[in-house]
Amino acid sequence: MRWLRLVSRMAPLLAVAALAAPAGATTLIRQGLEDLVQNNENVVQGRVVDIHSYWNADHSFIFTDVRLRPSFGLRRNEPGRDVTITLMGGTVGETTVLVIGSPELVPGSEYLLFLNREDLPGAPQTLTVRDLVQGAFETSTVNGERRFFSQALLHPLAPDAQGRTDVPGGEQGIGVDDMIRQIRELANDR
After folding, report:
1. Over the chain, what is the mean pLDDT?
2. Which of 126, 132, 141, 128 is nearest to 175 (CA)?
3. Cα(93)–Cα(102) distance, rounded to whole angstroms?
4. pLDDT tens-digit series, residues 98-138
5. Taking Cα atoms as reference points, which of 119, 90, 117, 122 lies closest to residue 103?
6. Neighbours of 130 (CB within 10 A)
7. Angstrom distance (rounded) from CA 107 to CA 67
8. With bands split at pLDDT 50, 70 and 90, how would you rate the model's confidence at 188?
9. What is the per-residue pLDDT across 59-102, written as a single tens digit (0 to 9) for each?
C-alpha cells in the first residue's frame, strides 16, 4: 500500500519530466523579416563556392568556413568580392560536431543569408549566420519564378512577442525581387 501511495505521488512529477525531455533541443524564437534586417549587419545573396571544416585554435570545437560569391549585397558588401562566413559545427576526419538548427549550405547552391559578427567559441567577432536556420533562405525556381524559402520551415519556432510562429514567405516562399525590395525598405527605415 505504501509503495502504491509513493508511485501515485511521483506520477505527476514523472509525467512533467517526460514532457520536458524533448525541450533539450535548440529553441528558436520566431524572427520576422524586420527582426532579421534590424539585428544583422549584412545581407548577402550568393552562391556557395567552397566549404572547409577545421578545428578552432585550442582544438575544442569544429567550425566550417563557407565562401560565397555574392550576386546581391546590402550594407557592408563590396561587389565582386567573395565573402567568407563561419558556421559552428562540421566534420574533420572522423569527428562531427552537429549544431541543431544550424543552416545547411551546399556548394553550388544559392542562398540569401543574414550575417552578423558574433563571438564563437575561441573565435571572437566572426561573421556568421547568427539566427541559425532563420537567417538562411534557399533559392529555388517555382513555375518559372525564382523564390526564397526559409530553412526554418522544417523547424518548430517559439512564438514572437505578437504570438506568430510563421517564417517570412511561409511555405510558398517569397519572390526574389519582392524579398530584396522588402529588405531594402526595412534597411532604409533603420
Report:
1. 86
2. 141
3. 20
4. 999 999 999 999 999 999 999 999 899 999 999 999 999 99
5. 90
6. 18
7. 9
8. confident
9. 999 999 999 999 877 765 556 689 999 999 999 999 999 999 99
What are the cell numbers at 173? 516562399
Fold of 26-189: OB fold (Dihydrolipoamide Acetyltransferase, E2P) (2.40.50)
At 42, which helix (H) or strand (E)?
strand 42-55
In the chain, alpha helices (H): 2-20, 33-38, 176-189
CA atoms within 13 A of residue 51's CA, in its CB half-sphere? 18
Cα 58 to Cα 55, 64, 65, 122, 167: the distances in Å are 8, 15, 17, 7, 37
Residue (of 51, 46, 53, 64) closest to 106 by Cα position: 51
Stated pTM of the model: 0.83
Neighbours of 80 (CB within 10 A): 7
